[in-house]
């Protein structure tokens, strides 16, 4: 089971200025699809909001109960990685940490 919106909307900006746009950004989803890797996917959270989405979280946890192995794709959104403002902390959003803690507690691979 693949969980996390970063699987399909992986940030690529980092320190690159917005005026520089790569011709093709390959997400982990693109790589899986190009290689013909079978997977099931649950979004789990919305990467551009730090608030939890209970409906997405419950769907991911329900799918995880049936899975042997879980791959979690999380991280900082392009907005959180932006320059020009001071971050209050270095953590991922509550939407991701809450879900990740629950997935870990399941004891899956």
Automatic annotation (TrEMBL):
* Occurrences of domain Glycoside hydrolase family 3 C-terminal (ranges): 17-109
Instruction: Write out the GO MF terms.
Output: hydrolase activity, hydrolyzing O-glycosyl compounds
The record's InterPro entries line, in alphabetical order, gives:
Glyco_hydro_3_C, Glyco_hydro_3_C_sf
Q: Which Pfam families match?
A: Glyco_hydro_3_C
Q: Which UniProt keywords apply?
A: Hydrolase
Q: Which domain of life is it from?
A: Bacteria
Gene3D superfamilies in the record, alphabetically? Answer: Glycoside hydrolase family 3 C-terminal domain
Q: Name one GO biological process term.
A: carbohydrate metabolic process
Q: What is this protein called?
A: CAZy families GH3 protein
- Organism, per UniProt? uncultured Lactobacillus sp
């Amino acid at each position: 089971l693949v969980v996390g919106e970063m699987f399909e909307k992986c940030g690529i900006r980092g320190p690159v200025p917005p005026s520089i746009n790569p011709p093709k950004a390959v997400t982990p989803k693109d790589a899986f699809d190009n290689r013909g890797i079978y997977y099931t996917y649950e979004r789990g959270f919305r990467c551009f909001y730090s608030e939890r989405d209970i409906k997405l979280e419950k769907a991911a946890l329900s799918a995880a109960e049936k899975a042997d192995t879980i791959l979690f794709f999380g991280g900082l959104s392009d907005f959180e990685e932006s320059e020009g403002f001071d971050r209050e902390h270095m953590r991922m959003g509550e939407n991701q940490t809450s879900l990740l803690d629950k997935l870990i507690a399941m004891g899956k691979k």
